[in-house]
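Minutes, project check-in
Item: structure for the 172-residue chain
Input as provided by the requester:
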Amino acid sequence: MQPPRASWLDRAARLGRLVETTALAGLVAAMIGLAAGQILMRNMLGSGLSWADEALRVMVLWVTMVGAVAASREQRHVSIDVLSRYLPRSWQAWAAMVTNGFVALVCALLAWASYGFVAGSMEVDDRVFGGQLPAWAVQAILPVAFVLLAYRYAINSLGALIDATSSVASDR
């Protein structure tokens, strides 16, 4: 039987996967529908929705950021990991700890920088969709996604550290 905390964490992880997958599917479906509708309206009616192109650009940003968070969930992101292929097995966990830690640091710095960007947008009252919506509302995905990415990679780095230290202990 699993301890209660483990089952709670498993449920939280499943909920996170469900939210990420639903958001990605909804955004991609909306993008396809809006783009197809815009093409049909332009070709058949000679007009389109004035806000559709801007909305599609915003949706691309959101799909990119939500997709990056989802890909980091199981470390299924694009990576260049030549070094670990040639390292001895006993060093691979250490390399994973260092690379995941570095990525966590970079994502934390990007979260901080993107927060500054969004705060600046709020300060000057930048607006999108013809002045109908504050720009920070659509830009807020940037710091949120980078914080989530930094968190995931920090956890992965700690997991690799545990693996590395336990492999050292088992070698003794």
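Outcome recorded: The radius of gyration is 21 Å.
No further action items on this chain.
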